[in-house]
Amino acid sequence: MVGTTVEWYDFFIYAFAANLVFQQLFFAPAGPEVGQLAALASIGLSFLFRPLGAFLAGHFGDRLGRRPMLVITLLLMGTATVAVGLLPTFETIGIAAPVLLILCRILQGISAGGEWGGAILMAVEHAPEGRRGLFGQFPQLGVPFGMLIASGVLAIMQAVTTDEQWLSWGWRVPFLGSIVLILVGFWVRRTVEESPVFEEMQSLKVRESAPIAVLFKTALPIVIFAALIFAGNNGVGYMITGGFVQGYASRPTDAPVPGLGFDGPAVQIAVLCAAAMWAIFTAVGGWLSDIIGRKNTYLIGYGVLAAATIPLFELVKQGPLMIGVAGCLLAIGLGLTYGPQAAWYAEAFPASVRFSGVSISYAIGAVIGGAFSPLIAQWIMNTFDGNTWAVIPYLLLLIVVAVFGTLMMKDRKDIPLTSQIEIDGTWQKIMDEPAKK
């Protein structure tokens, strides 16, 4: 949970800054509207590299262990984040500035693509039977906690700096401050024990030489459906976690890309409250899935998320207080469709290709869902003269896609997680022969 919090603090700081200042600092020559779209596109660009991170971490995580990948991805994310805080702007070094910014974002995407799978497997594969949903929600909590810290730091920096100071150096402080969190996360991840399931795989020599090839040969439909169940959560969630609502709410009404002109720190505090609610219902979702099953929890969660999506922007327009209300309503559905994900993904794949399976499914789902949802939402608003109602059908479509994936996925709650292969639709334990046989 600590390591995942650090990873996602770094990820969210970039998304929030892209909505607030990157158009002016890195993409200004493109013009206000195109520059804002370019800044939002840079958020989504990292998602395209998540599958690469998932492939690399999955391959080596299934062969070398879960723990080494956790340490490597944490350091990669941290290095890229601190580098963003040190970058000169377009005014200083010209076109090299956005090029270097995008390179840092790509490194963040590779890290995020590999980090999540290792984190959730370390939690779920240590869990006692019947409590995987509860244990699996801890690394999931790192995402709302990362957003909570990111929102809090940004609120403080916007409150203590003038507009000129904020654009000059204030936005850099949250990026540079990441180094403290990285040191803490590195220490924690270095001391955690390797997954008992991976240790059993080593002792029984149940390892695939090419786990990704085996995954696609034997479990491609599972990868697809698992990716779809995440698309709705990630796409709708990125209206807030991707910084779109914050940018829309706090940009001045007379800006080239107009917003609502609300007080920036007040907006960030409202989002902070939503992040706290997201954390609470992520924990509830993991716990509830141990009782009623992963699929049932997801279906309830997506029903709540759809209901909260419809009035989202109308509430946002009422001011920071109602932004907090809208975010908290959204957070209930987001939590219920995020808390059980670690356990459901882990139970969907056999041990020898599990790291690859969960990482690649998560990465593909993120590409389908959240990768470009802020960009698409802004493009829709530009096309329909700022009409936020035009964005709602797009978000509801993502939820429909996710519900389809949920209905197609098997619920294998409490299935053994030790070294297995699938035979006739059920996992069977392998005692002394490689899984490929």
TrEMBL record:
Record keywords? Cell membrane, Membrane, Transmembrane, Transmembrane helix, Transport
The Major facilitator superfamily (MFS) profile domain covers: 1-413
Whether Cell division counts among this entry's keywords is no
Where does this protein reside within or beyond the cell? Cell membrane
Q: Which GO terms describe its cellular component?
A: plasma membrane
Q: What residue ranges are annotated as transmembrane?
A: 12-31, 37-57, 69-87, 93-113, 134-157, 169-188, 209-231, 266-289, 296-313, 319-339, 360-381, 387-407
As for membrane topology, the entry says: Multi-pass membrane protein
Q: Does the keyword Secreted apply?
A: no
Record-level Gene Ontology MF annotations: transmembrane transporter activity
Q: Which PROSITE patterns match?
A: MFS, SUGAR_TRANSPORT_1
Q: Which InterPro entries match?
A: MFS (IPR011701), MFS_dom (IPR020846), MFS_sugar_transport-like (IPR005828), MFS_trans_sf (IPR036259), Sugar_transporter_CS (IPR005829)
Q: What's the protein here called?
A: L-Proline/Glycine betaine transporter ProP
The species is Agrococcus casei LMG 22410
